Description:
The protein is an alpha/beta fold. The protein has 15 helices and 24 strands. The chain has helices spanning about 5, 55-60, 70-80, 95-105, 120-135, 165-175, 190, 220-230, 245-255, 305-320, 365-375, 395-405, 425-430, 445-455, 485-500; strands at about 15, 25-30, 40, 65, 85-90, 110-115, 140-145, 145-150, 155, 180-185, 200-205, 235-240, 260-265, 270-280, 285-290, 300, 345-350, 355-360, 380-385, 410-415, 440, 460-465, 470-475, 475-480. The strands form four sheets. It has an eleven-stranded mixed beta sheet with strand order 9-8-7-10-6-11-12-13-14-15-16, sandwiched between helices. A six-stranded mixed beta sheet has the order 17-18-22-19-20-21, sandwiched between helices. A five-stranded mixed beta sheet has the order 1-5-4-3-2, with helices on one face. It is globular. Pathway: Cell wall biogenesis; peptidoglycan biosynthesis.
Amino acid sequence: xxxxxxxxxxxxxxxxxxxxxxxxxxxxxxxxxxxxxxxxxxxxxxxxxxxxxxxxxxxxxxxxxxxxxxxxxxxxxxxxxxxxxxxxxxxxxxxxxxxxxxxxxxxxxxxxxxxxxxxxxxxxxxxxxxxxxxxxxxxxxxxxxxxxxxxxxxxxxxxxxxxxxxxxxxxxxxxxxxxxxxxxxxxxxxxxxxxxxxxxxxxxxxxxxxxxxxxxxxxxxxxxxxxxxxxxxxxxxxxxxxxxxxxxxxxxxxxxxxxxxxxxxxxxxxxxxxxxxxxxxxxxxxxxxxxxxxxxxxxxxxxxxxxxxxxxxxxxxxxxxxxxxxxxxxxxxxxxxxxxxxxxxxxxxxxxxxxxxxxxxxxxxxxxxxxxxxxxxxxxxxxxxxxxxxxxxxxxxxxxxxxxxxxxxxxxxxxxxxxxxxxxxxxxxxxxxxxxxxxxxxxxxxxxxxxxxxxxxxxxxxxxxxxxxxxxxxxxxxxxxxxxxxxxxxxxxxxxxxxx
Length: 500
C-alpha cells in the first residue's frame, strides 16, 4: 500500500520523502521486529522514547517513520537517508488505529468481536467459548495469553492483549479465513494503553476482579485497576456480567442496567445448578445442570475442577446462547467432557502413585481457587511449588506464600520469571507470608525433581505460575524452559531404572 493512501484521514506534516511513491509492506512499533518496507510507528513507551530505536528500525529496512516531533535528534538520524519518508503527526492510539484500519482494510462487520476481561478466567472462558463455536460448525479465532489460535495454527502474541497493529493483523487474518467470531482476552493495561482503540466489541464478558496488577509497571492502585476494567465496557454493544462478583453491579450501573447475567450459584439468565464432583483416571470432573432463560435444562460434563471453572463454563455457555439462535438451542452441542486448556488445571503426569498438574496461577486469588478446588477431591497430600515474577506486584508475593501454607501440605518455593529483580528479594517477600512446612530450591528444574521425589500414592503435585509458558526469564536472559518436558524426562528416567 502506498503511504499516501495509508495516511488517509490523518492530519500530518511531511518532513521528507514522497508518500505517493513510498510502498508500505507492514506496520510495526517494535524496532526489533521491523521488516523491509515497514512503517515504523515511533512513539514514547512506558520507559523509553521511540527515537532511541530509529537507527535499528532503519537498519532493518523501514521505509517510513511516523513520529510526534521531528526534532534535532530525529533530523540528525533521518536526514542522511533521503529515501526514507518522515511523517510528523500525533502518535496517539487513535492515529495508530486509523493506520491499522486503512492498512488492513477489513470489514469488522463480517465477524462478531467478543472481548473477555477480568482478573481470573479470561483464557479459560475464551477457550471454552471457542470450543462451543467450533463444535457447532462456526469458525472462530481467539487471541490471548496462550497466543493466537486460528484453525490448526497457533501464533505467539506479544501480550495477553497484543499491541494494536498485531491485534488488527490477527483480526484481518480471521476475516480472510472466513471466521464468523473472534474472541480476545482484554487486559486492563491494554485498555489503558489504547491497544483496543478503534474497535467496538459486539459482546463484552466480565469474569471477576481481585486486587492485582498493582505496581510500578502496571497500575498505581486498585481503584485505577478497577477503573480501566470498567472502562472497557464503554466499547461494547452488549455486556455479560458475573452475578457472583459484586463489581458487576458497578459495570451494570454504567450501562443503565442493560446487560445479561450468568452465575455458578444463583438464578440468572444463564446459571449452573446441582454441581457434582467426580474423580476419573484421566482427570477431575464436574457435572451440573445448565439453565438458559426459559429453555429446558441441559446436563453438562466439565473436565476441570473447581467452582471457578463452573463459573467460567457458565460465562462461555451464556455468551454462546446470547449470540446464537434460541430456535436451535436443543440441537447445539454443549459439552466440555473432553475440554482442556494449556496451563490451566492441566494434568501432565502420574508419578509414584500421585498426579502432577500445571497451572498458571500467579496471584493470591488464583492460587486459592486452585488449591481449594483440588482439596475438594480429597487427595492424600497437596504439594505446591511456586515462585513469583520479578518487576511485578510485590503485594501478591506474601499473599501467595500465606495461601500455599494454609491450603497445601508442603510448599516448595523456587524461581519463576525473576526478570531483572534478584531472587533473594522475591523470596524475602514470599516468606513474609509463609508458615508451616516449606522448602526453598532456587533452580526450578531441581525443584521439580525434588517435588516428584517426595510424592506418595494419592498425592497431588501442582507446579504453579508458569502454566503454558515454555521459557524462563532470569537476569534479563530468556531461555527455553518446559515443565512438561522436565516432568516427562524424570518419569522416563524412573521407568528406565525400574525396568533394569
